[in-house]
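Hey,
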Amino acid sequence: MKKQKRKAIFLWAVLSGVLLVSGCLSSTGKTAQNSTSNGEKIPVWDFKYDPPITITTGIVDENRPNAFKPDESLTDNVHTRWMEDNLGIVTKFDWIVSKFEDADTKIRLALAVNGKLPDTLSAEGDILKYLLKADKLLPLDDAIEKYAHPKLKEALEKYAYTMAEVTKDGKIYGLPRFSAGDEGTVMWIRKDWLEKLSLNPPTTISELENVLKAFSEQDPNGNGEDDEVGLAVPLKEGPWSWMGQTDAIAGAFSRQMISTSDIKLFWNEDEKGSLIFGAVHPDAKKYLETMASWMAKGYMDRDAGMQDPSQASELAVNGMAGVMFGPFWMGAWPLGDTVKVDPEAAWQAYPLPAGPDGLKGKAQKPLYGIYTVFSKDFANMEAWFAYYNKLLAKNFGPDDPYFDPRFAQGFHEGYDYVIMNDKVITVNFATEGVPNDKWPLADGSSMDMRWMLYPLTGGAPALPYMNADAIRKLSENSEAIVTTPIEQAIKGLNSAQLTAAGVAIAEQGLEIPNRYHGPLTDGMEKHGVFLQKLATESYLSIIYGEKPISYFDEFVAQFYKNGGDVITREVNNWYMENKP
């Protein structure tokens, strides 16, 4: 789960107006050029450090396909050369590893021998805790005030709780890696199956169960075999995951959201205003009763307990399941691939089903997770922010003072875009008639630019719900004129995705947030892995009918007996001091 959170995966009030990173003198004496030969000020986006400065980092390179051209690599590519030539920033990798566990080992080793850390790196959980305890990180308060993009500062103020885990003695030691937060659950259904079986889209859990029954028993794929189930769902990691999650089922019965595979999710307020781990709240029985009933009736795959989200989606893609919950982007991958099996397949997103009392709800995808932190010896925060601001501004277009016009069409021609007949082409190069020798990659596929662009920032800079207005605008009118790169990106969604995104944003108010935003506690570090395993296995045993629903009470007792009481006390001590 920790690895998935890192993947997947997901800042302050305006204090100083327009950010003037150009011309800031670093403690190393290197200066960004900030004027022309006749003394005129240049725009804040147009800076170059002379002589060049070097920023070191460490990275997990998972050997993603389509990341580089044959003659390029993570350490030497069009973007690393562009940064040095145009910005005066050299990226150096202290280490490149293939697994997140190996990155943790590198950091632990550096701490053990008092070794040098990279200038910037990613940290969370116990690693972050150790770095803070060892006093190895740079306080960022002054740098944020002086150099951070105003929109970043604004987000830090609005979502100040995200800073709790990196706050020590009143100082800030890390930046949360924000997600856009627009991936809230929608209900995907095979619309063509509904029509074939003369069914209406379900609006309640009861109606959904009728749809699952019909999809499971009435051969909607028409192959004459009993090979369908209603719901494609991964249960290997519990109710909450990055795709195929069943948070909407829990949300139909309670305002208590559930996760079993992450001890930091979801902590909800109980009737007395204290925090309780949602997986042990009595309301979870209603979720378990429903899931156990559906499993017993054959509405879910018997292998669901061994499947992760990608494996579960194969059932839907192969025409053997007709309902799956998840984010809006599923309308392209993986559900878009269903037409390869059935050309008539049509997935559509629908609003969430209501429970017997009219309740609807879904999990708020965590708006942050891993943090970007900096070695206490790092002397070029103004340069790091200058680059970060440039990437962030790319989302907002030319009106943003940090928007680099050199990135107006994309980042690098021939890489993430091609220009032909004055048209910017970013996908489907063969279909668009782009000659083979102009394709970014030999097979005509698009390049994954993330590995070039974000080694120093740890990921694409994003702000919570920054896409929401564009989604609303284009959901209402897909032909509306786009004015920002964000709107251009939303306009590029296929029709199923755009409809789904509109549904998700319309139901944003149903999101149930996690209430605990503190550090990994001592109790979590000691007992968390066992309790996560206990919770997930207990849920599976009930859903599969191996244990009766009454076993839930025994599970809860075991949870508290084996450290859950300690963690609950720690969480509530934190909540008393930090409750909004």
